[in-house]
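During the reporting period the student researcher (J.K.) took over the structure-prediction task from the postdoctoral fellow and processed the backlog of single-chain submissions. One of the processed entries is reproduced below for the supervisory committee.
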Amino acid sequence: MLFASFPQRQDMLDTLVDRASRLAQAGRRGIIGICGAPGAGKSTLATAVSKALGDRAIVVGMDGFHLAQAELARLGRAERKGAPDTFDADGYVHLLRRLRANEGTVYAPLFRRDIEEPIANAVAVPPETPLVITEGNYLLLPDPPWCELRALFDEVWFLAPEEDDRTRRLVERHRAYGRSPDAALARARGSDQTNAELVLATAVRADLMITQWE
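J.K. obtained the following structure tokens:
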């Protein structure tokens, strides 16, 4: 595993876009996984790299496989939303296998934070797109069926910012979607932190560890 620290955001983007661009020119569909704990900046990085590559890349998020709120309530898992067993992990693995096979247009779900629900068939991935960037917490989890993902990625980048920075961003995100300051902090230090510790333990399986970039 390589370790990388970037004093400037643009330095990081230039380096990672170059890595991604090489995969997009490899002559077959490439898949990059961006992993990290909640609030690490996965979505921001995935979007920035995809934007830099234009129509050569598209982002497919793991969060689109969140179980619906009604199903979480039925299972008694609503208060633990974001834990591994609150996702359709088998569905996510199946989608990535289809994306790797690249046998026609694949439609992926999208998670809408404003309504806290996944939207089916919201992201079209046409066969001519040479690179898929997928981001999520549990890309490197060793437990089945998550463990089947690692072989489907060409590279996995792990974001590991300073914990204070990650928690601050997480609290800001929760507040932006309507939680009170106290509720946002409780969520970040509660179930989010439990999930973060699980994710951070998987970092050793990544190809590239990004410890600082802002």
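The committee noted the following: The chain has a mean pLDDT of 90.
J.K. will present the remaining backlog at the next meeting.
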